[in-house]
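Reopening this ticket.

The earlier resolution said the output was attached, but the attachment link was broken on my side. Pasting everything inline this time so it's all in one place.
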Amino acid sequence: MWAVVGAISASKDNITFSSEMEKEEQKKKKKNNNANDEENGKNSDNEEEEEEDGTKLKSDKELDLGPQYSLKEQLEKDKDDESLRKWKEQLLGSVDFSAVGAESKDPEVQILSLSILSPGRPDIVFPSSFASNNTKASLFTLKEGSQYRLKFRFTVSTNIVSGLKYTNTVWKTGIRVDNSKVMLGTFSPQKEPYTCELEQDTTPSGMFVRGSYSARTKVLDDDGKCYFDVSYRFEIQKKWPSPT
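Inline output:
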């Protein structure tokens, strides 16, 4: 009987001890979980703060473009810095302020013409007025596998235009098949037109590439100001079109 009572008592003690141990373990786990949650919360806050700081820094860098100056103001600015003065003189050259209008802070770019040059073929020249042509007819036809290059003629007035670039997007049956961007450069105002020829390219070839395409061409600067925006259609065929 005592043995039985002892066994029961021992069992009760073990149960009580186990319960206490479980309680202690649960307390420790809860404490550790809380500590981990706090640490994770701090880390998350830090990450959010770092992300916010990074975003703010990035936004500040993107938005802080600095004040704009007219051409005359730019020439007067930093007179004592010899390297800057020489760079400006090299960039501007002999600018006739009366001819280009040096009082405005915004540059003006006028696209005079866009040409397609292909060896052994007459140049295909489009005046700036074709930008207002919204016809659905094909504007020109290129032979598959032929070499060509684009040429722009344009004028710059009133101020320096920075980071002038050409973008072109092409679709076939509603699917985008090409998206290109080419930097033209930075140009000072002058009365005479500028001419920029892009690198030579080759039209694709094969029966699957023949047909009608739609395209959109833009010329814009690094501030996002657009000076030329035209949508048009063209074709790629097995042969050049017959002369008219």
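Reporter confirms the inline version is readable. The chain is about 35% helix and 35% strand. The radius of gyration is 35 Å.
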